[in-house]
Every structure is written in C-alpha cells, then in structure tokens.
Amino acid sequence: MGKLTRRAIVAAALAAPFAARAQEWPAGQMKFIVPFPAGGTLDAIARLVQPGLQQRLGTTIIIENRAGAAGSIGGAAVAKSPPDGRTWLFVFDTHATNPVTQPSLPYNSETDLDPVMLVGTAPNIIACQPSRPYQTLAELIAASKAKPGGFGFASAGTASLGHLTMLLLAKRSGAQWVHVAYKGAAPAVNDAIAGHIDLIIAATTVLNSQIEAKLLRPLAQTGSTRHPTLPDVPTLVESGFPDLVATPWWGLYAPGKTPRPMIEHFRAEMSAVLREENVTERINAMGLTIVASDPDYMRKFYTEQSRIWGQVVRDNGLSVDGG
Q1: What structural domains and CATH numbers belong to the chain?
Q2: What residue stretch is flagged as signal peptide (predicted)?
C-alpha cells in the first residue's frame, strides 16, 4: 500500500508543473512558430496580430521563424511541443501536401497537430514583366508552345498550390513551361520584375503591390471569382478552364491533444483581433480574405485540400527534395 502511495505522490509531483501552467493560462509567455522566413505573408500576419493578442490575453507572445522543408521543420517543432496552450503554429497551403511530398515527415499532420482556425484565403495570380508581348493568358500559353524548351515560371516552392496549379494548367492547355524553384518570394518577384524569369505565380498577398505599381502585368487569377483588388483580371475558369480553382490559404494549429477549451479561447481572441478595423484593413490590403473559421471547419478544409492536391503531387511524382 505504501509503495502505491509513493507512486501516486511521484505522479502528482510530475503532473503538478503542467497543472499549474494550465491553471494560470493564458497568463505567461506564448510562442508563435512561423515555419517560413521573416518577411513572408505568414510572418506578416503573425506580427500584425501579435500586439492585439498580447493585450487581450494578458501575455507576451514571441515570434520564432523556423524555416525549411516547405514548413515541416516548424511543424515538427510544434508537434513535439507540450499541449499546454503555449505554442501555436501558422501554416501555409504546403501543409496539406507535405505528408505526400515528404514520406519521412517526422509527425502525423492529422493526430500530432490540432486545427485552430482557417485564418484566410487569397487567389494566386499569374503575372509577367510588362515588356513581354503577351497580354492575355491565351497569348501566354501560345507563346510558351512556340519557345524551344518552353517558359520558366517561379512559384512559392515545390508542391505549393502555385506550382501544382501550373502543372494542371499545362496538362489541360498544352502549355510548355518548367518550374524554377526560388528560396522565398522576394527573389522570385525581383527576377520576375527584372524579366529574368518568364512568369510568376504567387498570391495576391505577394503580387498586389507590384501589380499596382505596374511592375508586373497580371494575366489570370486562380480563385472561383475575381478578387476585389483585381476586378479586371479574369479567373482561370473564365479563361476556358472549367473547375480549375486553386486558393492559397493560411491556417493556425496547436500541438496535438491541446485542451479544446484552450483552443476555443485562443481562437475567439484571435478572431476578435482579426476583426479589428485596423487589422482587417491591413490584411485586406494584402489581398487576403479573412475567414477566421472554427476548428472543425479547418479540419474538414484541410482534409479536402489534402485529397485534391495530394493526388496532383502523386500524379507528378513530386518531392520537396527532388522538386
């Protein structure tokens, strides 16, 4: 009996720190893991909501960029973190294809991470340097067929939604182009503006300012409808490719087994910050449409994105290492 009591005491002692942390939550320090370099859209969103969340939660939030392997390095760090409401993961659309492009992914996206919310969505834009002779998507496709070796296009990375969309578009149109991988959006945009690359596909969040400054010419967008910031740019559906809709997205996750009340509380505060007028205006100006969903919607959305785009990855034999 005494032996059992000692075990109970040891177990209680081990559980005490976690229980204390849970009791004081949300006070104390939190961490945002952004699995891409500083300066990108995920990083911008994290830094935009950071002050409001700190105020609403009464805590300090540290932003940590852990870039690499299409976001899976940061994802692994959060998957291995304690489920105590202290660590949160921002993800991009590659989160849905990483399990297919990386067979040795060191975590299970379905069980080791819990969805918090779909933060928002935005269409991709296919654009080129304004000096290029093609004015429409049809002209771009025709020109690519006439060029030996086809055109080179830049995207956010291997198996990103932009990359996969261009593969589908080539298959359906007969366009000739090859993927040119860049380490981040900034160098890709710079090369597109300079004309060093034939075209670029990237989200409105990346290209809107360059298009507004007339440094790039938009030829098509990939959403189901025209985005409010680009009302004159046709969709792929309008351009003759029925059902070819691809919407980049940004989401938020917690370590697996994080208590649902913590997730709901954090999601509610995050949603409130996203709806603050100054935050909403700045996010909309980036070309991103706020969704701020609940966790269940995020889970269903992720499952559907994995199903659709995972198949495209498999059909094309893509991997993060091999591209």
Answers
A1: 22-121+248-316 (3.40.190.150), 124-221 (3.40.190.10)
A2: 1-22
